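C-alpha cells please, single chain.
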Amino acid sequence: MRLHVGCAQWTHAAWPQPSREKLRSYASWCNAVESNTTFYATPSQTTVAGWAAQTPADFRFVVKLPQLISHERRLSGVEVELRAFLSAIEPLADRNHALWIQLPASFSPTDLGSLAAFLHQAPRGYRYAVEVRHPAFFDEPRTAELLERVLARVDAEWVPFDTVTLFQHRPTSLAERDAWMKKPRVVRRTRALTAHPIVRYIGRDDVQQTVDGWAYLVDSVVNWLGEGRSPTVFLHTPDNVEALGLARRFHSDVRSRVPALAPLPEPVEVDPPTLF
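Here you go.
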C-alpha cells in the first residue's frame, strides 16, 4: 500500500536545501515530483541519469510531455519528437510513473480525435495521464463521458487540477492574484479511472485554508487505498513556500486514517551555511 506525494518542483529558495544535489534533498521529504522542466525542452540522457542517481528506486516522476508535442503540434505528427523524448527519459526506468499530457485550454471536445489517435499510436509500456482544461470537459456530462471513453481504451488517467480552494476567496497576495489570472477555474473531479489516480491540488498561501480545503481529497485517497489503488497527489500553493511541508502533512493526514500506509522518508538535515 503506497501513497506518493510531492510538489510542482524540487527546489525553492524558501526550502531547507543544500547548494548542490537539491533533488536528492527533496527526495528525502517527498516520494514524487512533477517534472515540469521537460515541458520547455527535452533534457539530455545525461541530465536525466543525474535525476535518477539522486532519487531512491521507489521515487516517482510524473513527466510532462514537451510543449512542442502537446501545445504546438497538438499531438499530431509528433512520432519523431515523442521517440526522442522517450529515449531521453530512459534512465528514469521505473521511476517514470506516468507520461503527463497537459493540454491547452483551447484543446476542446472537437479535438478528441487527435487525443484518441495519439494514445492509440503511443508506445505501450508507459502509463499515460491526461490533463484537460477546456470548460466543456467539466461542465458537460456527455463530453466528460466521451473523454473517459478515449482514456479507458488505453487505461490512461484523467488528471484533475483542483483549484476550488484557490478561488474560494479573493486574492490576498501578489502570488494569489497571479494564480487567479493563470489557473483554470473548473469544477472538482473525484473520479479515478485507473489503479493509479493522480491529483494536482492548489490551495492558498494561508496554510490553514489549504489544509481545510483538502479534507475531501483525504477522504478520496483513503477510499482509493481501500480499493487497492495507488494514488499520487501533488500539493501546490500560489507561492509554493509551504508546499514541501504541506505535502508531508497531507501524507500524515491520510496515514492517520490508514496506519498500514508506508511512511515517507525522514528528511535529510541541511547544515547551515558557513562563512569559510
